[in-house]
């Protein structure tokens, strides 16, 4: 589901780069559906890279590259879509910070610390074109599509936490995620133990109250 959701956002690309491609499932969909002329799978470890190589032998427009993020990737290539999925936001931000390529679209799907992606977008003058919450194998993910020219700017701290969607128009799965997060924690426990977490849970509570009002 996660891979299909991302693939549905991509079209008419010359070059697409999937960082952390694992079994190359996304690149295979893009090749089969003619969504990109050339697709690069990037893996830093030999075992997942070999998975990609084995699975893409019959696709001449899929190239597999061993690289730690973009460190060993051709920095002269113009990338239409860069996708990074299924890893933590800290790692995604590190990969993006290390990229020297010009990129038109970034589609990320972190499994935690989603606000770091929006903070990165805010600090680097990217706009959010699309956001969606999904769940796979009982793990919540946020799909966030960034562009330089289309979408909404991230202006406020609450937008980093909760996205640029209006409260009343937010998708039900995102609200479910917030409720589960809030209800699974004892907010008073964090008041003296972890004040940053306490403040965050207070904001989640206020956000949910506004949604339900």
TrEMBL record:
The keyword RNA-binding does not apply. InterPro entries: SAM-dependent_MTases_sf, TrmK. It comes from Malacoplasma iowae 695. GO terms for molecular function: tRNA (adenine(22)-N1)-methyltransferase activity. It comes from the Bacteria. It holds the Pfam family TrmK. This is Class I SAM-dependent methyltransferase. Keywords: Methyltransferase, Transferase.
